[in-house]
Amino acid sequence: MLNSTLNRTLNLTLFKGNVIKKTAVLTVLTSLFLVGCGSDQNFKREVDGNEDYLKSPSLKPLIIPEGTSVPAESGDFYIVTTEVKGELGKKLDIRPPVLPIPTIQDAFAIYNNGSVTFNAPLSNNIWDRIPDSLSKRNIFIASGDNNSIKTNKAFMVRADEDQAVEASYSMTRELLGDTETITISITSLTRGAEDLISQPIEVQRYVVGLFNDIMDDVAPDSVRVVPRKAQDKEAEKENAEGKKPATAVSGANQE
User: Cα-Cα-Cα-Cα dihedral of 143, 219, 165, 157, to 10°?
Assistant: First the structure.
């Protein structure tokens, strides 16, 4: 009887030990799998679905039998046959182009041929604040004066890229009355041994991206204030959770 009890206890202990080991192994494998998925950013650039559309047959000219009357041709339904030049399938980058977004009142910005041109009132001191914005992103200035800045090469990290690019920039300023016009251009762009300076989409992505980062740094506090509607929703959420909104607490303190 004692031996039987000891055997059952021993078997149960061994079983539990094996279960724990298997569970640990599965946990480690699952963690590695999730880490791999988390670092793979290809889904942000690829078409979601299969590539059967690439197997579509090419269009053939319409054969009209003799004696058959057909309506007159209309340009509204004409399909232009062009030779496809560029990436296809999973190699296609579906990310939209980056657009310059000025955050300063009475300012405008345009992107053209590898450069962002930005005009804003002098009172905002945009030019004087650019060095701090560059330093914040580990972009160091190679040379500069009151109207020009040239940077060293710096790595530009993006969450939707598997490998960071290395870029350098030049910036110029022109005073026009009580405004300043600043032009930001990209002077070099590489990813490893690959030169990207001849790829318009990549150039636009990184020069406009830097411009928007600078605009985020120099944006006035009024742009950063949470809209009243969002504040009201947050207050309603806190009330639903049994908490007093911040406005009620401050009001009580004032009394």
Answer: 130
- Can you state the angle between helices 246-254 and 228-240, rounded to 10 degrees? 90
* Conformational region of residue 67, where left means phi above 0, alpha means psi within -120 to 50, and beta covers everything else: left
67-71, 110-114, 247-251: least confident range: 247-251
Structure tokens at 119: 């005009």
- Backbone phi and psi for residue 149, each to the nearest 5 degrees, phi listed first: -140, 135
* Burial class of residue 184 (count of CB atoms within 10 Å of its CB; 0-12, 13-18, 19+): buried
167 in Cβ contact with 189 (< 8 Å): yes
pLDDT band for 227, please (50, 70, 90 cuts).
Answer: low
For 75, other C-beta atoms within 10 Å of its C-beta total 5
Q: Are 114 and 104 in contact (CB under 8 A)?
A: no
Q: Based on C-alpha coordinates, what's the Rg of the chain?
A: 31
Q: Find out whether 51 and 13 touch, Cβ atoms under 8 Å.
A: no
With H, G, I as helix, E, B as strand and everything else as coil, classify residue 140.
Answer: coil
The rounded distance, in Å, linking the Cα atoms of 212 and 215 is 5
Burial degree of 187 (CB within 10 A; 0-12, 13-18, 19+): middle
Q: In sequence order, which ranges of the chain are alpha helices (DSSP H)?
A: 2-39, 126-136, 200-218, 221-224, 228-240, 246-254
